[in-house]
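for the recovery benchmark. tokens below, seq after
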């Protein structure tokens, strides 16, 4: 049983490493294309109009918009399933085990947000305080897998739990603070549909066609409500049962297994490709790096994340609410804190929401996210790769 559990964790790390490399490759390709003779073709492609019409109902968006507001719903649906599974059956199900990653994740969100806010206080850009709060699960776990022989399994489980709590925090931030003008009518319809799905589940009626049809309608309602449509994916994930109410067959685990590869190897690389294209003008490069958005994002991820993770972890231990994972020391916790500063996908996602009407600030933030995420990964790997003192 224990051997099987360890094998599952290691296989998961290998998958996340492959995903991280693929996403990074997609981002690099986008960055190269957007600063080459193919720049015009690249931007034409990501804004390629795609129309969806069902009778009188029509949606007209560019490719990038479809990726961010439609395909990413599946990413957040899987995230919702994984969070629910961890809260009910995983490491977060036990209060004693959950205390350390929860405290660490909270610190890893509060401190980076404060650092960003400090540099951008009373400026138009202060709305971007949520950018350095996020952790990219695929990248952080992928980086950790590079030094898997140097760290205990308990540390890998800790990072996974921390990243999941971090995801939940990011989802709440998006829902509460990055919402446009809300349409009560559409939001009411969305929650009515979710309630109907929940009631049907309770009476033993739940299957994939029902989930797909209801999920599509819920997504449409959220899309029109002003609340970001990806929240629909999270809520649908929370409502999906772990086991079928009648047959007791595994549902959530099967859905995660079936969607994980598609999300990791198709949706996330496409998201990176369509959002990482930044035009880097040599004459504006220094100005961009010294901009408050760039400074706040850079130090929020690279400094704020490890500082927040370590300080709040220490606080939870001092309060006797938790203890360090087995065979883990504070140097390794520092390395994990740095890996949690790999924001990438989620940070870019929040950047798009923060500066939806200001492409210049969005590009400055994205460039800083890319730079700080790469540095956080490199420094974290170096620290974790050091041999233990004997």
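predicted aa per position
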């Amino acid at each position: 049983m224990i051997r099987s559990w360890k094998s599952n964790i290691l296989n998961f790390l290998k998958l996340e490493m492959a995903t991280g490399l693929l996403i990074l490759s997609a981002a690099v390709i986008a960055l190269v294309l957007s600063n080459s003779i193919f720049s015009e073709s690249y931007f034409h492609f990501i804004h390629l109009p795609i129309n969806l019409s069902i009778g009188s109902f029509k949606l007209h968006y560019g490719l990038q918009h479809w990726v961010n507001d439609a395909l990413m719903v599946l990413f957040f649906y899987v995230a919702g399933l994984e969070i629910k599974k961890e809260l009910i059956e995983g490491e977060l199900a036990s209060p004693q085990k959950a205390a350390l990653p929860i405290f660490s994740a909270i610190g890893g969100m509060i401190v980076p947000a404060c650092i960003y806010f400090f540099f951008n206080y009373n400026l138009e850009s202060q709305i971007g305080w949520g950018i350095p709060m996020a952790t990219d699960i695929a990248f952080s776990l992928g980086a950790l897998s590079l030094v898997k022989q140097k760290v205990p399994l308990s540390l890998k489980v800790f990072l996974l739990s921390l990243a999941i709590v971090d995801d939940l925090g990011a989802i709440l931030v998006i829902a509460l603070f990055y919402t446009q003008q809300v349409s009560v009518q559409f939001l009411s319809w969305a929650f009515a549909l979710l309630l109907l799905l929940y009631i049907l589940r309770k009476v033993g009626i739940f299957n994939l066609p029902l989930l797909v049809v209801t999920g599509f309608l819920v997504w449409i309602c959220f899309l029109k409500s002003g609340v970001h449509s990806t929240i629909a994916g999270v809520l649908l994930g929370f409502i999906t049962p772990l086991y079928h109410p009648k047959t007791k067959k595994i549902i959530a685990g099967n859905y995660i297994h079936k969607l994980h590869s598609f999300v990791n190897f198709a949706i996330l690389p496409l998201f990176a490709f369509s959002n990482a294209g930044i035009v880097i003008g040599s004459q504006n490069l220094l100005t961009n790096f010294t901009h408050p958005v760039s400074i706040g994002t850079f130090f929020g991820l690279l400094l704020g994340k490890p500082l927040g993770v370590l300080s709040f972890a220490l606080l939870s231990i001092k309060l006797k609410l938790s203890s360090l994972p087995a065979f883990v020391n504070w140097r390794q916790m520092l390395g994990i804190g740095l890996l949690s500063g790999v924001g990438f996908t989620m940070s870019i996602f929040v950047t798009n929401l923060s500066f939806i009407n200001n492409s210049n600030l969005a590009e400055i933030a994205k460039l800083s996210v890319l730079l700080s995420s790469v540095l956080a990964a490199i420094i974290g790997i170096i620290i974790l790769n050091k041999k233990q003192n004997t």
